[in-house]
Design brief:
InterPro entries: Cu-oxidase-like_N, Cu-oxidase_C, Cu-oxidase_fam, Cu_oxidase_CS, Cupredoxin. By secondary structure, the chain is mainly beta. About 10% of the residues lie in helices and about 35% in strands.
Length: about 550
């Protein structure tokens, strides 16, 4: 990257080369989330195990690489956590970004930005726009050629006064967008308010972003079936390609790689930080209709879009910038909580170190709110009052090949005390909760203590959203193997969660934020079996003021 200053505005020159590489989605050969080899893991094997009619974990891709100058001899270093994404580009209002793109791939590509202004001749997108040959050179850079793109961060494209100093955008090849992106040509772009870098030289600001606790994560089901290189990958990695293999539904599914920055099943490296660090998360969604993601940061509270949360929602070509103060040392899970995506490997770890002994978590000036909850099995009727002539009989009548409306389930049930002898009675106003567990309520500064007894026939847990806790209280089972994530039948575990000050509703929101809790020994099966309930995080004093206000939980 070369930086020039002209009329007090920055001109950033990037020398980027498109190269074809072989990319490994799980270089460890492991499902690191569960500490199992690919061969030992039934789900991971679907995508990552090579076979006579399977490609496996390694695919030919095209990626953007940055070099120091126009010789394209010395590659610029980038953090490992960027994966196969291109180099991170940054600009603040008024800057000009110049991309000298050299294409060393075997077919034409381009580069096109989101969030920057450009002229028609520098757009990098092929479509019938009515322009002549002189304005079409940017639409396809042939193999072996170089084209220079020039983009500007104008005031209208910059973050608004209500935004963070910097917000997340992206860039990608736009010749055939679907095939280009699934082939690997995508990268992050961070655009900032004017003056963001004024207290530092640009180089220092850039290095600060790279190495001091700012991370870009892209959630994408990379469909290798739609890559330009699917035939090359079959030829190289499939030892016995049968006729019609590309139309085989199981083969097609095996090539849909549910990845974060191009890594699956915990293989994403380098998301490391220290307790107390202020961390920026630049999150990106891309892909097609399946790429609707719920990104959960375990044990942490983030601020995103002027809202406190622990989960960020993403969809294709949408990005969210979030801020977080890292709390509680440990190896924490970062995952998409969409059931299919979670099982298919869209999971990673971020690690919080206790770097500074004098840095401690803020302890709430608290009120203790204690609950006694059991997991209990019962038969649940989904439709106890449907008339027999109803069209719903397809779903609610039982027979030789139908279960009907009644299923064996497991529910969270509240008790009055730790003896777990007397159930809390629901009022008529609580009956709408149905199969849900009891509503847990707390305010900023509170501690929630849940004494959980497993009265069911298999292990369960409680995983809470919207609260902070130490790593040994994480209710999701992965390679931590803490008791909190695997409460055996007829045993009791006590969970303690804190609601830090500043984690509740912001000005303009209702008095309480709605979260949930659920069992996560196997989150897909546990929630489908019935173990889920609501959790409300409220402003200080609002619970006492609002005790007479009716709640309806949907």
């Amino acid at each position: 990257m070369c930086v020039l200053v002209s009329n007090s505005l920055l001109i950033e020159r990037h020398f980027i080369q498109i190269e074809e590489v072989h990319w490994n989605y799980a270089p460890s050969g492991m499902n690191l989330i569960q500490n199992r080899t690919i061969d030992e893991d039934e789900e991971a094997s679907i995508f990552l195990k090579r076979g006579p009619q399977r490609i496996g974990a390694v695919y030919k891709k095209a990626i953007y690489k940055e070099y120091t100058d126009a010789t394209y001899c010395k590659e610029m270093l980038k953090p490992d956590w960027l994966g196969y994404m291109g180099p991170l580009l940054m600009a603040e209002e008024g800057d000009t970004v110049v991309i000298h793109l050299k294409n060393l791939a075997s077919r034409p590509y381009t580069v096109h930005p989101h969030g920057l202004a450009y002229t028609k001749g520098k757009e990098g997108a092929l479509y019938p726009d009515g322009t002549g040959p002189m304005l079409k050179e940017d639409d396809a850079v042939p193999p072996g050629k170089v084209f220079s793109y020039e983009w500007i961060l104008t005031k209208t494209h910059s973050p608004t006064s209500d935004d963070s100093n910097c917000v997340t955008r992206l860039y990608h090849s736009h010749l055939n967008t679907v095939k280009d992106i699934n082939s690997g040509l995508v990268g992050p772009l961070i655009i900032c308010k004017k003056g963001t870098f004024s207290t530092l030289s640009y180089t220092n600001a850039f290095l600060d972003f790279f190495f001091f606790f700012s991370f870009t994560v892209m959630f994408l089901v990379s469909d290798e079936n739609m890559s330009w290189y699917i035939d090359d990958n079959i030829k190289k990695f499939v030892s016995d390609p049968t006729e019609g293999l590309k139309d085989d539904p199981n083969f097609i599914e095996s090539n849909k790689m549910h990845a974060i920055n191009g890594f699956m099943y915990g293989n994403l490296p380098g998301l490391n930080m220290c307790q107390g660090n202020r961390v920026n998360w630049y999150t990106i969604g891309f892909g097609n209709e399946v790429d609707m993601h719920s990104v959960h940061f375990h044990g942490q509270i983030l601020t995103a879009l002027n809202h406190h949360t622990d989960t960020i929602s993403l969809f294709p070509a949408y990005s969210v910038t979030a801020k977080m103060v890292a709390q509680s040392p440990g190896l924490w899970l970062l995952a998409c909580n969409v059931n299919d995506h979670f099982v298919a490997g869209m999971q990673a770890f971020f690690k919080i170190f206790n770097c500074y002994p004098n840095v401690h978590e803020t302890k709430p000036a608290y009120k203790l709110r204690e609950y006694f909850i059991a997991a209990q099995e019962q038969v649940w009727n989904y439709a106890p009052n449907f008339p027999k002539e109803s069209e719903a009989q397809t779903f609610v009548s039982n027979g030789p090949d139908r279960i009907g409306s009644s299923y064996k389930k497991v529910r969270y049930v509240e008790y009055t005390d730790s003896s777990f002898r007397k159930k809390m009675q629901w009022s008529s106003e609580q009956e709408h909760l149905g199969i849900l567990g009891p509503v847990l309520r707390a305010e900023e500064g509170d501690i929630i203590r849940v004494v959980f007894k497993n009265k069911a026939s298999r292990p369960y847990s409680i995983q809470a959203h919207g609260v902070q806790y130490t790593i040994d209280q994480d209710g999701t089972l992965y390679n931590n193997r803490y008791k909190a994530s695997f409460v055996r039948p007829r045993t009791v575990h006590t969970y303690e969660w804190t609601v830090p000050h500043g984690a509740g509703p912001v000005k303009g929101e209702s008095d309480c934020l709605t979260y949930l809790y659920y069992s996560a020994v196997d989150s897909v099966k546990d929630t489908s079996s019935g173990l889920v309930g609501p959790l409300l995080i409220c402003r200080p004093g609002s619970l006492e003021r609002g005790m007479q206000v009716k709640e309806v939980i949907h």
